[in-house]
Every structure is written in C-alpha cells, then in structure tokens.
Amino acid sequence: MKQVTPYGRFMRIKRMEQGRLLVEQAVFMDCTPSLLSSVELGRKPVPERWFPIVAEFLKLDEYGKSQLRTAIDKSNVEFRTRPRAAEPVHALAASKK
Question: With contact defined as beta carbons under 8 Å apart, do 5 and 40 qualify?
Fold first, then answer.
C-alpha cells in the first residue's frame, strides 16, 4: 500500500474535521477523485495551481494556508527525490525500433 504524503495527511485530517468527502473536493476542484487520491498518495506531484483552490475549499485562515503550503512543499520534495522505478525492458526495446 502506498504511503500517504504530508499533503495527503493534511487533506484527510481537514476533510474529517469538516465532515467533507473526497468526492465533494473533486467536484469543487473539477477533477476526479482518483486524481486527488493519486496526489495524496504521492503517485503525482501536487499541482501549484491547487493551492488557492484547496484553501478556498477548506476555508483556511492564514495559519491553515501556511500549514497547507508546508504540506505541499514537503510532498513535492518527496516526489522529486524518490527513486524512480526501472523502465520495463520491453519498453526500451520498442523505443529503439
């Protein structure tokens, strides 16, 4: 099972505190729940354009926005620094044709 990123932990805690659902957030942000989940689990980086949208969705004050910024920055650093999976051999062979 994938480990939840700092951004994912922040979002899950805030949604629970507010009684909100991932599906509600997806509708608000005009994206799919699977995309939100992929970002929270670190499969994809947190898009910078999400910061003001998430802040609005959660109705964050300045302290909450600061916490959100920190969570996004930590998650994106983890995403950029983690080792990448090796490319399958058949994909490499196909690209050389």
Answer: yes
* The pLDDT value given to residue 97: 47
Q: Are 77 and 69 contacting, i.e. CB atoms less than 8 angstroms apart?
A: no
Q: How far apart are CA 1 and CA 5, in angstroms?
A: 12
User: pTM for the whole thing?
Assistant: 0.78
Rounded distance between C-alpha atoms, residue 58 and residue 51, angstroms: 11
* pLDDT of amino acid 9: 96
**Euclidean distance between CA atoms 6 and 25, whole angstroms:** 18
Mean pLDDT over 5-21 rounds to 97
Burial label for 95, CB within 10 Å (0-12, 13-18, 19+), is: exposed
Report whether 29 contacts 58 (CB < 8 A): no
CA distance linking residue 17 with residue 39, whole number of Å: 20
